[in-house]
Protein backbone atom coordinates (compact mmCIF):
# COMPACT_ATOMS: atom_id res chain seq x y z
CA UNK A 1 0.00 0.00 0.00
CA UNK A 2 1.59 3.33 -1.01
CA UNK A 3 2.11 5.89 1.73
CA UNK A 4 1.60 8.91 -0.55
CA UNK A 5 -1.88 10.40 -0.79
CA UNK A 6 -3.88 9.62 -3.93
CA UNK A 7 -4.67 12.57 -6.23
CA UNK A 8 -7.32 14.86 -4.74
CA UNK A 9 -9.47 14.69 -7.89
CA UNK A 10 -9.56 10.91 -7.63
CA UNK A 11 -10.70 11.07 -4.01
CA UNK A 12 -13.28 13.71 -4.93
CA UNK A 13 -14.70 11.53 -7.71
CA UNK A 14 -14.77 8.51 -5.42
CA UNK A 15 -16.53 10.40 -2.61
CA UNK A 16 -19.24 11.71 -4.95
CA UNK A 17 -19.83 8.33 -6.58
CA UNK A 18 -19.93 6.55 -3.21
CA UNK A 19 -22.33 9.09 -1.72
CA UNK A 20 -24.64 9.18 -4.75
CA UNK A 21 -24.32 5.50 -5.69
CA UNK A 22 -23.83 6.38 -9.35
CA UNK A 23 -20.99 7.45 -11.64
CA UNK A 24 -23.47 9.39 -13.78
CA UNK A 25 -24.82 11.32 -10.79
CA UNK A 26 -21.27 12.01 -9.58
CA UNK A 27 -20.31 13.31 -13.03
CA UNK A 28 -23.31 15.66 -13.05
CA UNK A 29 -22.49 16.98 -9.59
CA UNK A 30 -18.82 17.52 -10.46
CA UNK A 31 -19.61 18.96 -13.93
CA UNK A 32 -17.37 16.44 -15.72
CA UNK A 33 -18.02 13.53 -18.04
CA UNK A 34 -19.01 10.02 -17.02
CA UNK A 35 -15.71 8.79 -18.44
CA UNK A 36 -13.69 11.25 -16.39
CA UNK A 37 -15.22 9.99 -13.12
CA UNK A 38 -14.67 6.37 -14.16
CA UNK A 39 -11.02 7.05 -14.99
CA UNK A 40 -10.46 8.76 -11.65
CA UNK A 41 -11.97 5.84 -9.75
CA UNK A 42 -9.88 3.32 -11.70
CA UNK A 43 -6.77 5.39 -11.00
CA UNK A 44 -7.64 5.43 -7.28
CA UNK A 45 -8.18 1.66 -7.24
CA UNK A 46 -4.83 1.18 -8.98
CA UNK A 47 -3.14 3.49 -6.48
CA UNK A 48 -4.60 1.55 -3.55
CA UNK A 49 -4.36 -1.85 -5.27
CA UNK A 50 -7.92 -2.82 -4.34
CA UNK A 51 -11.46 -2.72 -5.72
CA UNK A 52 -13.69 -0.03 -4.23
CA UNK A 53 -16.99 -0.68 -6.01
CA UNK A 54 -19.10 -3.58 -7.19
CA UNK A 55 -21.89 -3.39 -9.75
CA UNK A 56 -25.47 -3.75 -8.46
CA UNK A 57 -27.87 -3.50 -11.36
CA UNK A 58 -27.35 -0.05 -12.82
CA UNK A 59 -25.84 1.32 -9.63
CA UNK A 60 -22.73 0.88 -7.56
CA UNK A 61 -22.16 -0.75 -4.19
CA UNK A 62 -19.09 -0.15 -2.09
CA UNK A 63 -16.83 -3.09 -1.29
CA UNK A 64 -15.58 -3.60 2.25
CA UNK A 65 -12.46 -1.58 1.43
CA UNK A 66 -14.62 1.01 -0.31
CA UNK A 67 -16.79 1.48 2.78
CA UNK A 68 -13.70 1.85 4.94
CA UNK A 69 -12.21 4.47 2.64
CA UNK A 70 -15.50 6.33 2.23
CA UNK A 71 -15.86 6.84 5.98
CA UNK A 72 -12.54 8.65 6.22
CA UNK A 73 -12.85 10.51 2.92
CA UNK A 74 -16.35 11.84 3.64
CA UNK A 75 -15.25 13.08 7.08
CA UNK A 76 -12.16 14.70 5.55
CA UNK A 77 -14.15 16.52 2.85
CA UNK A 78 -16.71 17.64 5.45
CA UNK A 79 -13.89 19.07 7.53
CA UNK A 80 -12.43 20.84 4.49
CA UNK A 81 -15.80 22.36 3.62
CA UNK A 82 -16.32 23.55 7.21
CA UNK A 83 -12.83 25.08 7.33
CA UNK A 84 -13.36 26.90 4.04
CA UNK A 85 -16.76 28.21 5.19
CA UNK A 86 -15.27 29.39 8.47
CA UNK A 87 -12.44 31.18 6.66
CA UNK A 88 -14.91 32.79 4.24
CA UNK A 89 -17.04 34.00 7.14
CA UNK A 90 -13.98 35.50 8.81
CA UNK A 91 -12.71 37.14 5.62
CA UNK A 92 -16.12 38.48 4.65
CA UNK A 93 -16.97 39.51 8.20
CA UNK A 94 -20.01 37.25 8.37
CA UNK A 95 -22.17 37.53 11.50
CA UNK A 96 -21.62 35.23 14.47
CA UNK A 97 -25.09 33.80 15.12
CA UNK A 98 -25.83 32.77 18.70
CA UNK A 99 -28.82 30.60 19.64
CA UNK A 100 -30.06 31.18 23.17
CA UNK A 101 -33.02 29.97 25.27
CA UNK A 102 -35.81 32.54 25.07
CA UNK A 103 -35.98 33.17 28.81
CA UNK A 104 -32.22 33.71 29.10
CA UNK A 105 -32.24 35.86 25.98
CA UNK A 106 -35.11 38.10 27.14
CA UNK A 107 -34.22 38.40 30.82
CA UNK A 108 -30.42 38.45 30.83
CA UNK A 109 -28.77 38.84 27.43
CA UNK A 110 -30.94 41.45 25.69
CA UNK A 111 -30.49 44.05 28.48
CA UNK A 112 -26.73 43.65 27.97
CA UNK A 113 -26.62 43.51 24.17
CA UNK A 114 -25.79 47.17 23.69
CA UNK A 115 -22.75 46.83 25.97
CA UNK A 116 -21.74 43.59 24.24
CA UNK A 117 -21.84 45.26 20.81
CA UNK A 118 -19.76 48.19 22.11
CA UNK A 119 -17.16 46.00 23.78
CA UNK A 120 -16.92 43.34 21.04
CA UNK A 121 -17.52 45.36 17.84
CA UNK A 122 -15.65 42.89 15.62
CA UNK A 123 -17.94 40.02 16.62
CA UNK A 124 -20.98 41.20 14.61
CA UNK A 125 -23.24 39.16 16.85
CA UNK A 126 -26.73 38.09 15.83
CA UNK A 127 -28.93 36.36 18.42
CA UNK A 128 -31.95 34.11 18.04
CA UNK A 129 -34.25 32.34 20.49
CA UNK A 130 -33.95 28.56 20.58
CA UNK A 131 -35.77 26.65 23.31
CA UNK A 132 -35.08 23.13 22.08
CA UNK A 133 -32.01 21.01 22.69
CA UNK A 134 -28.90 22.91 21.58
CA UNK A 135 -27.96 21.86 18.06
CA UNK A 136 -25.52 23.73 15.83
CA UNK A 137 -25.35 21.14 13.05
CA UNK A 138 -27.76 22.95 10.72
CA UNK A 139 -25.04 25.29 9.48
CA UNK A 140 -26.84 28.59 10.24
CA UNK A 141 -25.80 28.70 13.91
CA UNK A 142 -22.28 29.61 15.00
CA UNK A 143 -22.84 28.72 18.66
CA UNK A 144 -25.52 27.98 21.23
CA UNK A 145 -25.73 29.20 24.82
CA UNK A 146 -27.42 26.70 27.12
CA UNK A 147 -27.53 25.08 30.54
CA UNK A 148 -26.36 21.49 30.01
CA UNK A 149 -24.95 18.71 32.17
CA UNK A 150 -22.12 16.32 31.28
CA UNK A 151 -21.43 14.31 29.22
CA UNK A 152 -20.86 17.04 26.64
CA UNK A 153 -22.16 16.51 23.08
CA UNK A 154 -19.40 15.10 20.90
CA UNK A 155 -20.42 17.01 17.77
CA UNK A 156 -19.82 20.44 19.37
CA UNK A 157 -16.94 22.11 21.17
CA UNK A 158 -18.07 23.05 24.66
CA UNK A 159 -16.73 26.10 26.51
CA UNK A 160 -17.87 26.25 30.14
CA UNK A 161 -19.03 29.66 31.34
CA UNK A 162 -20.43 29.21 34.88
CA UNK A 163 -22.08 26.75 37.23
CA UNK A 164 -25.87 26.62 37.28
CA UNK A 165 -27.60 27.54 40.54
CA UNK A 166 -31.32 27.02 41.07
CA UNK A 167 -33.76 27.94 43.80
CA UNK A 168 -37.39 27.87 44.84
CA UNK A 169 -38.84 31.34 44.23
CA UNK A 170 -42.20 33.01 44.73
CA UNK A 171 -43.92 36.38 44.69
CA UNK A 172 -43.55 38.39 47.93
CA UNK A 173 -46.99 37.45 49.25
CA UNK A 174 -46.28 33.72 49.11
CA UNK A 175 -42.66 34.16 50.18
CA UNK A 176 -43.81 35.95 53.34
CA UNK A 177 -45.74 32.82 54.38
CA UNK A 178 -42.63 30.70 53.82
CA UNK A 179 -40.03 32.96 55.44
CA UNK A 180 -38.21 31.34 58.34
CA UNK A 181 -39.96 28.00 57.89
CA UNK A 182 -38.41 24.68 56.75
CA UNK A 183 -38.47 23.84 53.05
CA UNK A 184 -41.31 21.37 53.60
CA UNK A 185 -43.61 24.37 54.10
CA UNK A 186 -43.79 24.82 50.33
CA UNK A 187 -45.76 21.55 50.08
CA UNK A 188 -48.86 23.53 51.07
CA UNK A 189 -48.35 25.84 48.08
CA UNK A 190 -48.92 25.17 44.37
CA UNK A 191 -45.73 23.79 42.84
CA UNK A 192 -44.78 25.26 39.45
CA UNK A 193 -42.27 23.73 37.02
CA UNK A 194 -41.39 23.35 33.34
CA UNK A 195 -41.74 20.19 31.29
CA UNK A 196 -38.23 20.76 29.91
CA UNK A 197 -36.53 20.55 33.34
CA UNK A 198 -38.29 17.79 35.34
CA UNK A 199 -35.05 17.10 37.21
CA UNK A 200 -34.85 20.61 38.72
CA UNK A 201 -37.14 20.09 41.72
CA UNK A 202 -35.62 16.67 42.64
CA UNK A 203 -32.12 18.21 42.49
CA UNK A 204 -33.19 21.05 44.76
CA UNK A 205 -34.93 18.66 47.17
CA UNK A 206 -31.81 16.50 47.45
CA UNK A 207 -29.61 19.52 48.13
CA UNK A 208 -31.98 20.79 50.85
CA UNK A 209 -32.58 17.35 52.44
CA UNK A 210 -36.27 17.54 51.63
CA UNK A 211 -38.45 14.43 51.31
CA UNK A 212 -38.47 13.73 47.58
CA UNK A 213 -41.55 11.51 47.76
CA UNK A 214 -43.69 14.19 49.35
CA UNK A 215 -42.41 16.75 46.87
CA UNK A 216 -43.34 14.46 43.97
CA UNK A 217 -46.92 14.26 45.21
CA UNK A 218 -47.03 18.05 45.43
CA UNK A 219 -45.53 18.36 41.92
CA UNK A 220 -48.11 15.95 40.52
CA UNK A 221 -50.83 18.21 41.89
CA UNK A 222 -49.07 21.38 40.72
CA UNK A 223 -48.86 23.11 37.36
CA UNK A 224 -46.42 22.63 34.49
CA UNK A 225 -45.43 25.04 31.74
CA UNK A 226 -43.76 24.35 28.43
CA UNK A 227 -41.19 27.13 28.70
CA UNK A 228 -39.22 28.67 31.55
CA UNK A 229 -40.41 32.12 30.50
CA UNK A 230 -44.04 31.20 31.22
CA UNK A 231 -43.04 29.55 34.49
CA UNK A 232 -41.44 32.76 35.71
CA UNK A 233 -44.44 34.82 34.66
CA UNK A 234 -46.68 32.46 36.64
CA UNK A 235 -44.50 32.88 39.73
CA UNK A 236 -44.55 36.66 39.32
CA UNK A 237 -48.35 36.50 39.11
CA UNK A 238 -48.44 34.73 42.48
CA UNK A 239 -49.68 31.38 41.16
CA UNK A 240 -47.30 29.31 43.27
CA UNK A 241 -43.67 28.44 44.00
CA UNK A 242 -41.39 27.93 40.99
CA UNK A 243 -37.95 26.41 40.56
CA UNK A 244 -35.68 28.55 38.38
CA UNK A 245 -32.02 29.29 37.56
CA UNK A 246 -30.74 32.28 39.48
CA UNK A 247 -29.18 33.84 36.40
CA UNK A 248 -32.51 34.13 34.60
CA UNK A 249 -34.35 35.77 37.53
CA UNK A 250 -31.54 37.92 38.94
CA UNK A 251 -33.32 41.12 37.98
CA UNK A 252 -36.58 40.01 39.60
CA UNK A 253 -34.73 39.14 42.82
CA UNK A 254 -33.03 42.51 43.00
CA UNK A 255 -36.28 44.36 42.36
CA UNK A 256 -38.11 42.29 45.00
CA UNK A 257 -40.64 40.93 42.52
CA UNK A 258 -39.46 37.41 43.37
CA UNK A 259 -38.03 36.07 46.63
CA UNK A 260 -35.98 32.91 47.25
CA UNK A 261 -36.83 31.91 50.88
CA UNK A 262 -34.17 29.18 51.03
CA UNK A 263 -31.54 30.60 48.72
CA UNK A 264 -29.96 28.72 45.83
CA UNK A 265 -28.08 25.45 45.29
CA UNK A 266 -25.65 24.28 42.60
CA UNK A 267 -26.64 21.59 40.12
CA UNK A 268 -24.44 19.38 37.94
CA UNK A 269 -25.31 21.55 34.92
CA UNK A 270 -23.21 24.39 33.55
CA UNK A 271 -23.95 27.43 31.45
CA UNK A 272 -21.97 26.58 28.33
CA UNK A 273 -21.18 28.04 24.94
CA UNK A 274 -21.40 25.27 22.36
CA UNK A 275 -19.41 26.04 19.21
CA UNK A 276 -20.46 24.60 15.87
CA UNK A 277 -17.94 22.73 13.79
CA UNK A 278 -16.15 25.28 11.65
CA UNK A 279 -17.27 28.26 13.75
CA UNK A 280 -14.44 30.78 14.31
CA UNK A 281 -12.90 29.69 17.59
CA UNK A 282 -11.38 33.09 18.28
CA UNK A 283 -14.83 34.70 18.14
CA UNK A 284 -16.27 31.99 20.39
CA UNK A 285 -13.53 32.41 22.97
CA UNK A 286 -13.95 36.20 22.93
CA UNK A 287 -17.70 35.84 23.52
CA UNK A 288 -17.14 33.27 26.28
CA UNK A 289 -14.65 35.57 28.04
CA UNK A 290 -17.12 38.47 27.82
CA UNK A 291 -19.92 36.32 29.27
CA UNK A 292 -17.75 35.22 32.20
CA UNK A 293 -16.73 38.80 32.94
CA UNK A 294 -20.33 40.00 32.71
CA UNK A 295 -21.49 37.33 35.15
CA UNK A 296 -18.90 38.49 37.68
CA UNK A 297 -19.73 42.19 37.24
CA UNK A 298 -22.56 43.61 39.39
CA UNK A 299 -25.46 44.85 37.26
UniProtKB/TrEMBL annotation:
Keyword Transcription part of the UniProt annotation: yes
Domain HTH lysR-type, chain residue ranges per copy: 6-63
Statement: the UniProt record of this protein carries the keyword Metal-binding: no
Alphabetized InterPro entries for the sequence: LysR-type_TF_proteobact-type, LysR_HTH_N, LysR_subst-bd, WH-like_DNA-bd_sf, WH_DNA-bd_sf
Domain of life: Bacteria
Keywords (A to Z) from UniProt: DNA-binding, Transcription, Transcription regulation
Similarity comment text for this entry: Belongs to the LysR transcriptional regulatory family.
Record's protein name: LysR family transcriptional regulator
Native source organism of the sequence: Kushneria pakistanensis
Organism phylogeny: Bacteria, Pseudomonadati, Pseudomonadota, Gammaproteobacteria, Oceanospirillales
